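User: Last request for today: this protein with zinc ion, please.
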Amino acid sequence: MKYPKEVRTYCPVCKEHTVHKVKLASKGKARSMAAGNRKHARKLMGHGGKRAGEKTVKKQGKRQKIVLECPQCKKKHERVIGGRTKKKLELES
Ligand SMILES: [Zn+2]
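Assistant: Here's the final one, the structure of the complex with zinc ion:
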């Protein structure tokens, strides 16, 4: 999937449309010792059977995300593009 390098869009800080720079959003690292992750691991313990919180169906694609940077206020905001897709997002040259 291709996406332009610059997009003219609304900036909620400047409250007007400006030409934003587009960057691919990189996902942060999940903390394995976070409280929610530990609770989830506790739920999955045991011997077989039906366990709450265990995924039975895997989603086919990922939702691609971009970071928009406003040149006026230098603020960044994120945007999710379309639905789930298997294709990686790439910026047009
Ligand atoms: Zn702005």
